[in-house]
Description:
This protein is an alpha/beta fold. The protein has nine helices and nine strands. Helix 3 (63-77) runs parallel beside helix 4. The model has no long low-confidence stretch (mean pLDDT 92). It has a single domain (6-274), classed as NAD(P)-binding Rossmann-like Domain (Rossmann fold), CATH 3.40.50. It is globular and about 55 Å long. Strand 2 (30-35), helix 2 and strand 3 (53-57) form a beta-alpha-beta unit. Strands 3-2-1-4-6-7-9 form a seven-stranded parallel sheet, sandwiched between helices. A two-stranded parallel ribbon has the order 5-8. This is Short-chain dehydrogenase. InterPro entries: KR_dom, NAD(P)-bd_dom_sf, Sc_DH/Rdtase_CS, SDR_fam, SDR_oxidoreductase. GO terms for molecular function: oxidoreductase activity. Belongs to the short-chain dehydrogenases/reductases (SDR) family. Keywords: Oxidoreductase.
Amino acid sequence: MQTSKVWYITGASQGLGLSLVKQLLHAGYRVAATSRNAGLLQEATGIIDKTRFLPLTVNLTNPDSIDDSIRQTIAAFGRIDVVVNNAGYGMAGTVEEAREQDIRDIININVVAAIEVTKRILPLLREQRDGYIINIGSVAGFAGAPGWAVYSATKAALAAFSEVLALDVAEFGIRVTVIEPAGFRTGFLTENSLSYTAPRIAGYEAVRKTQERYLAMNGRQPGDPEKAAAIFIALAERPDPPLHLFLGEDAYLRAAQKINDMSAELEQWKQTTISADF
């Protein structure tokens, strides 16, 4: 079977992105997938089918590289229907110990790259008057944990981008969802996917204890990437996907608690809030 939809997925050589690519190809979709090394991506999928699978070596910090990957996708498949901005990594530690370049690097991949990919594909989706954009955020972007301030900031930015983008492009028939998972067994807590600096400054016990707990969870996270990938595919077939989708029970509980806390605080400070008006 070959379906008509074409998926373009960034950061597809491991974890959730790789699970998604494999399921899509198995189901007969056409897929363009980016990685820093297309050869390793090809090897990881174990699939050689040039009529349906286009592995691409892309530097997501280079707009010309992104443009070239989109041109190759259009040349191979003629269109793009679903965009998945999946590329990204984690950064844990205290803010005062974070290096400036490390902060800039994670913002460039987790936020700027997603915006640049979206910016370059939007004209195609707008002309088609149809399309679906999935941005992979994190529950940490809504309800963070100690030691993840910079990472949480990038995912909060991606969520805000998704919210306003959805308003901008609705008239063109383009749908947007930001996926906000909790812990999934994707290799996120491994060296290749996580920049981690253990606190060296005295104190910061909340950061230290949280990081120890998270790192001890590696390989035992409750989230199943195969189930997540199946959810993505099902969402893309719906005319009414959600704007926000939290994935995993922990994500649900953290988000629900945050909403309750915010609602209570909003009401507690209501008089102060409205007193600022003329």
